[in-house]
Amino acid sequence: MSAASSSATAPFHTDEHYLSMDLLRFTTAGSVDDGKSTLIGRLLYDSKAIFEDTLENLERVTEQRGEDNLNLALLTDGLRAEREQGITIDVAYRYFATPKRKFIIADTPGHIQYTRNMVTGASTANLAIILIDARKGVIEQTCRHSFIASLLGIPHVVVAVNKMDLVDFSEARFNEIVAQFSEFASRLNIPDIKFIPISALHGDNVVDKSDRTPWYQGGALLYTLETVYIGSDHNHVDPRFSIQTVIRPNNDAHHDFRGFAGRVAGGVFKPGDDIVSLPSGLPAKIKSIHGPEGELAEAFAPMSVAITLDREIDSSRGDLFAKLNNQPVVTQDIEAMVCWFSPKPLNPAGKYILRHTTRETKCALKAVRYKVDINTLRKQTEDVSVGMNDIGRIHVRTATPLMIDPYKRNRTTGSFILIDEFTNATVGAGMILWPDGGDRAPTDQFADMGGL
Prior knowledge:
Layout: E1 23-29, H1 36-46, H2 52-64, H3 80-85, E2 92-97, E3 102-107, H4 115-122, E4 127-133, H5 140-151, E5 156-162, H6 171-185, E6 192-197, H7 221-227, E7 240-247, E8 259-266, E9 268-269, E10 274-278, E11 282-291, E12 294-295, E13 299-300, E14 304-309, E15 320-323, E16 329-340, E17 351-356, E18 359-373, E19 378-380, E20 391-404, E21 415-419, E22 426-434, H8 446-449
Parallel strand pairs: 1-3, 1-4, 4-5, 5-6
Antiparallel strand pairs: 2-3, 7-8, 7-15, 8-14, 9-13, 10-11, 10-15, 11-12, 11-14, 16-20, 16-22, 17-18, 17-21, 18-19, 18-20, 21-22
C-alpha cells in the first residue's frame, strides 16, 4: 500500500513535510446490520488498500464459514466475539490511503448500549458516514447518531442509503429517505450534509459510480471523501496554544534554550507576535517557533511546535498562550453537555478529576440541569439521573482556573474528560456550552448545539 501524496496545502503553511491537512478522520455510524463494517471493507477492498496476506486470510475465513461472497465485514470486526455474533461491539480503527488523501476510519457500534463508543470514535472526526438501510428508512438509531454527530460538532455528514439493491435501486425510495432525514436534521447543527445511494455488498457508488443508479448525479463515496474540504474545520481565528512541557536541553549547543512545547489548538502564531500566558496574565513576545525540521515562519492548528519567548516568564504544563487582543475566558465555573461512559451513574454532588487540554484539576459537580432524550431531542428535567450512555447538561466548578472557549467555536479548548479519582477510569466526556464571549451568565444554549 503506497503512501498518499500531498495534494492539498494548509491555508497558512506550505512546507512539504507537514501533511496533516491531507488526513481525513471519519467515523461510521448506523443501526445494527446496516452494513457499516461491510462498507469499510468494500472501501478498503475496491481501493486496493488490503495487504495480500490479509486478503488471503479473509478468503480462508469466508470459506470456513461457508459463505458465497467474500465477507468484507471481517476486516473490521476483528474481535473473536464480534465475528461469532456478526456485529461490531468495539471501536475498530483502520488506516488507508489513496493518491489524493490519507484516511483514519473509526468503525463504531450500532447498539444503543454502545453510544459511548460512538462518542469516543467520533470525537476527533472531520466527517461522519451515517448508514441507513434503504428498506427501513430513518429509525431511532439514525436520529441518535445524527444528534451525537451534531453535539460533537462534526461539520460534514454523508448519509449513505445502503442496500439499494434490495429495493431495486428505486429513486423514489431514495428521495423518500432523503426527505425523512432532512426533516429531522433541520433541528440539528450540521452545516454540510450529502446523500449517496449505495450497495456496500456489491460496491455500487462506493469507490466507483454505478450504472444501476443513472438518476443519481453526485459522486461516489470515495470521491466525496477525497474531495471534501476540511481546511476550514480548524479554528484559525482564535490563537490558542496549550503548553505540554518546557524544553531545557542544558547543553553547550543550546545553553540558553527554553522552549514551550505543545500543540496549537487554534489561530496562527508567528515570531514577533505579542502573547499572554494564562492564567497568570504575564505578557511576552514570541522570539521563535521550532518544528521537527527547524525554525518555522508560523504555526497553526493542529501543529505540534516549541515556542521561545523574548523574556523569562513563569509558565508550565497546563498553561495556555493566547494573543493579547484575543483571549479565552479564564473561569472555574463551566456549563457543559456531558456524555456519561461509566456503568456507575453520575453523582450529582460527586468530585472528579477534570482534564482539559494539558491541564488537570479536581472538580465538583454543582448541578445536573437536565437529561436529553436523544431520540426526541427533548429535555428531561424531572428525571436527571445520568447513567451510562446518557447525555445531560451539568454545571462544574474546578479547583483551579481553566482557559476555555465554547465547544462550537473550538473543539479542543471547548472539551474535557472526567476521571474517577479512585479508579482513574474515564467516566465522561464534556462539551462546553458556556461562556459564549465571556461576558454573559450561563443560559440555555442547547438549542445552539443540538436543535431543541
